[in-house]
Design a protein that fits this description.
The protein has 369 residues and is an alpha/beta fold. It has helices at residues 20-29, 49-57, 71-83, 87-95, 104-112, 126-136, 153-161, 181-192, 203-215, 219-228, 237-244, 258-272, 301-312, 320-326, 333-347, and strands spanning 11-14, 33-36, 41-42, 65-68, 98-101, 142-148, 165-171, 174-175, 197-200, 231-234, 275-278, 281-285, 289-292, 295-298, 353-356, 360-363. The protein has 15 helices and 16 strands. The longest helix is centred in the C-terminal third of the chain and has 15 residues, at 258-272.
Length: 369
Amino acid sequence: MTEVRPLAGFTVGITAARRAEELGALLVRQGATVRYGPALRIVPLADDTELHAATMRLFDAPVDVVVATTGIGFRGWVEAAEGWGVGEKLLNGLSSASLLSRGPKAAGAVRAAGLAEEYSPASGSSTELLHYLLESGVDGRRIAVQLHGEPLPYFVDTLREAGADVIEIPVYRWVGPADPGPLDRLLDAVLEGTVDALPFTSAPAAASTVAMARRTDRLTALVDTLSSRVVVACVGPISAAPLAALGIPTVQPRRSRIGALARTVADSLIARSPKLCTAGQVLEVRGTGALVDGEWREISPAPMALLRALARQPGRVVSRRELSAELPAGGDTHAVETAIGRLRTSLGGAAVVQTVVKRGYRLAVNPAG
């Protein structure tokens, strides 16, 4: 028997722009099918007038503290400055400031630029970094904060309230996708029930996805779907905030890393998959099919919709009328009977799905299952 990978049969939608392929590769390696619908695009640094203006502001007066939040952001900032012909001037200004890095990747980028950080929290936490700054005293100090694709209002506002003059450095700024088509089609797939998980790597991606649904009158349906059937995973609480505001439950890894996010998606999908003892076999229901005693069975959409409905309450008789409402394109009792026949064929026989005369169908769940 061919070995079945852990996420075989599941489809995951990815809305990220940066590191989308990395996240997708981790999931595909475990057997998942991945659909991409970027919710964002990154403004090229060399063309970013906001970044240029913020960088020029640094030359107005000496900077006391520079906060590097991400490695890719800090490197991109230095490279953009070099493109504008002020790279050496920027590095000279940074060398005279106290450099703080949020985590090891940011610290590595600082060192690669020939600079040295004064402090980096072991936790990689913005909160710990902010606490260090406040303990050091920031009143009257000029502080540059390299943003990482999204505003840091709490971080920046707290420093300003404590008396600091804060210059925000908007590195790799995110805006809406140039082509909204892939995201629009991904939302359709989510609502059609053909996407099992939707991970988010940033708050702007989550907010942009919500905004697309709102503009196209699909927000209520999306919230209902994400709150019930789809695994919604976020890399951290900041990324989850736009979804939490709508009451959408999310799962999050302990560490805010792409690899940990992929593992959380995988663990959540597997944990949600019904595993039943039916007709002397072990049946595991997945996104586009089922495992029968460990053997993969691909199932077409209509029969799969009925299997999910039957598996929600194993052993309960589900009427033809109830099942007809589950069919993706709707249908009458004849359509239900046809789909049940195809489901039995896909599962390898009639024993798993029982007909209860004049009442409907049920899964033949073993008493001990």
